[in-house]
Amino acid sequence: MPEINDIKISKNFYLKDFQCPCCKKVIIHPSLLDEMEKLSAMVKGKIKITSGYRCEKHNKEVGGVPNSKHMKGLACDITATDLQEVYNIAKKLKFSFVKLDEKKKYIHMEV
Ligand SMILES: [Zn+2]
Ligand SMILES: [Zn+2]
């Protein structure tokens, strides 16, 4: 038996890449997947999603803002070896918001 959400949804991503780690629920906006797919292609797959969809409980646990776009399938966080390079590329795509957290070493993006 394959794992739940072990479903290829684009060239570089599986549904499980975006699922909530606590309950495995997942919603994802097609525009977020589109932009993530473009980004992944441009950096040759060298990114890792660290947070995609979050249920309300998980969002609280990780200290997300109450209205977090992670709870609406409109945001995700990634890590990469060269965060600055990935950030510069992400800024050129159609994300509505991209933020580099240099301290915690991740990039948050929204559509
Ligand atoms: Zn959850
Ligand atoms: Zn985030």
TrEMBL record:
SUPFAM superfamilies for the chain: Hedgehog/DD-peptidase (SSF55166)
Alphabetical list of InterPro entries matching this protein: Peptidase_M15A_C, Zn_M74/Hedgehog-like
Record field: transmembrane: none
Domain Peptidase M15A C-terminal per the UniProt entry, residue ranges: 27-109
Signal peptide bounds: none
Lineage top rank: taxon: Bacteria
Pfam families, per the entry: Peptidase_M15_3
Protein name: DUF882 domain-containing protein
Lineage of producing organism: Bacteria, Pseudomonadati, Dictyoglomota, Dictyoglomia, Dictyoglomales
